[in-house]
Write a structure and sequence with these properties.
The protein contains four helices and five strands. With about 160 residues, it is an alpha+beta fold. It has a five-stranded antiparallel beta sheet. Helix 2 packs antiparallel against helix 3. The protein is elongated.
């Protein structure tokens, strides 16, 4: 289970909205000059907070500190769909077009079409899996520990 600490912002039946502190290791990483994550952090809004809707079966109050979790296999499955399916579409269509003996511009267009089809398949799967509770973040309990929220927010 991948866990993150957060503070309840609002409640609704069966779920809560939680603000989490985005933690970045860019300051300690050796590859920060060539890393896309560091660039995205610089280009971002500068906010160190993220907001997530987490399912819960318990009653929480605004301001409660909670632990939000998502199963690791759900993250791996999601990464597969988001990254690999479009790439399979791109390479599959390009190899198919090349196998048919098409000219290079046609192979490039086929690869672009395969990538687009891959993205459409991901979108279809995303809409189909939207109601799957196993893929949704869930509140797994009250956050313990003595780390103050304001101190963690200033570190980000």
């Amino acid at each position: 289970m991948i866990e993150e600490r957060g503070r309840v912002l609002s409640t609704e039946p069966g779920a809560v909205w939680v603000a989490t502190i985005r933690s970045s290791t860019c300051g300690t990483c050796q590859a920060k000059a060539g890393c896309g994550q560091a660039l995205l952090q610089k280009l971002g809004s500068g906010s160190s907070q993220g907001f997530v809707r987490a399912l819960t079966g318990q009653s929480w109050q605004v301001g409660d500190e909670v632990m939000v979790g998502i199963p690791e296999d759900a993250l791996v499955r999601s990464a597969f769909w988001v990254y690999l399916v479009p790439l399979f579409g791109l390479f599959g269509a390009a190899l198919f077009a090349q196998g048919l003996g098409w000219a290079e511009p046609a192979v490039i267009l086929a690869a672009a079409a395969g990538l687009l089809i891959g993205f459409l398949v991901v979108r279809w799967y995303s809409r189909r899996a939207q109601g799957d509770l196993r893929l949704q973040p869930q509140v797994i309990g009250r956050a313990g520990g003595a780390v103050a929220w304001e101190t963690r927010a200033q570190e980000g």
